[in-house]
Amino acid sequence: MRKFIEVISQEMEQAFEAAGYDPSLGRVTVSSRPDLCEYQCNGAMAGAKKYHKAPFMIAEDVAAKLQDSEVFSSVEVVRPGFINLKIAEAFLTVYLMQMKDAERFGMPAQEAPSRIILDYGGPNVAKPLHVGHLRSAVIGESIKRICRYHGEEVIGDIHLGDWGLQMGLVITELQDRQPDLPYFDPAYRGDYPEEAPFTVSELEEIYPYASKKSKEDADYYARAMEATHRLQEGDRGLRALWDQIIQVSVTDMKRNYAKLDVTFDLWNGESTVNDIIPGMAARMKEEGYAHESNGALVVDVSEETDSKEMPPCIILKSDGAALYTTTDLATMLDREENYHPDRMIYITDKRQELHFSQVFRCARKTGLIRPETRLDHIGFGTMNGKDGKPFKTREGGVMRLQTLIEDIDREMLGKISTNEEIPPEEARETAEKVALAALKYGDLSNQASKDYIFDIERFTSFEGDTGPYILYTIVRIKSILSRYSREGGKEIGSLAIGTARSSAEKNLMFDLAGFSAMMDNAYEELAPHKVCAYIYQMSNDFNSFYHETRILTEEDTEKKEGWIALLSLTERVLLTCIDVLGFSAPERM
Ligand code: ARG
What we know:
By secondary structure, the protein is an alpha/beta fold. The chain is built from 20 helices and 13 strands.
């Protein structure tokens, strides 16, 4: 199906052509003056110069050709030459009827899907997930679903931080605490224990402890570096210990991501590419891209047009160690070889912008990826507390994701439990669903690059631009539809949408008709906030319509059935939208 805006533009373009003007002048846009009209066309203004004619006259010529239009119910020319338009109700209905029965509401099928690797989540092994990783997971999951809905093939990769000094630190501290473990005995030849000698909580306590200590104790730091080096060289015992750290940590991560309804296709990490780093570095050197600078191996990535300084990309440090940059480059090479992606999209904190500029330039310059491969970095802003500073616990520590989720679940449960009709078990499940919507919508409704204030009270409110408000609207529709069916109504899918009888009803219908244009745009701009804005508008328009219409008690069957059909389409569109945002609706709340 063609987009609604395209269909009405085409009608206008044909009128321009029929009146002897360039059809491309006939582009229609949504009205900037909704009090006067629904859509408008400013083409006559643009044509005045070309045709040496007053815009008003051009507009009149065009309007004359639209007298019998089935698309427009009113075509009004206003000085100096604007064409104000209203859509014929019957035409709008026909469009929605097609949309209602079409696959994906009439979004065109993707002929040539692009293969996208989406790099998001990015948690670090042995460190608790904190709120910074929340944004990457929430935004990434939604972008993945938007791209998939659009028809693209998306592979989501978590890109674990599982290599480098952080691992050496944990290993060193474990050795200090439990020196007799066989992992540390170079002479040990037997199998290592199956059970890890630590729990996830211990790991999470060990990392910050070790990190702090390494900054105060030079010898400790040197030992951590040494352990990192031995691990990367493949020391048998340290590898076995490292495997267990990963296992314990990943099990915990999976539980947390499951709570967020976030899933990954690949659980690769920085370590995945360890073995291809030497070859990559050697090739960069041989081909003349990399050179030595103060003992390190670097690739220059600055360009003449740079207004800001662009430092060279360090491939290997002077001691031969790989860096964050190195693993990202090698990962690109690995992805190119194994998946041939058309595009790679990275979702991280925007403070990593410089890093990705360097990495992208270096990958292009050294030919790690094909020239046509698209690379995007979506840098997101900080989640702040009410004080405008990065979100912290009450004690001032880094907020753990788990704690945050528990807080919002509790808040929501308090609200849901006030509805006495809902039994406790269902209330708990519902609270979790609504809390997730509150959390995700609170994040996604902001343009990703902006900082935002995490405000539990506002996010969990059933009113305003919030997740719970959207769910409340959906639940309201669900309850009307199920009552209609319970009271012996017809099969809902077979009902025909009627013609709009009020402006509230017509506004809701326009919202629905705009679905594919909105989804396309959200995909083009990788912008979940567009989906949020769309469903917020739709929910407002639905609620205005609902408040002025007695649907179930309507005696005129045709009218009532038309409304039920309209509600059902509204419900389906809203459900699709919240699914691409990454949450779902309860049956009641
Ligand atoms: N682990 C990193 C961090 O916590 C994020 C990884 C982002 N992805 C990437 N390919 N660099 O900051």
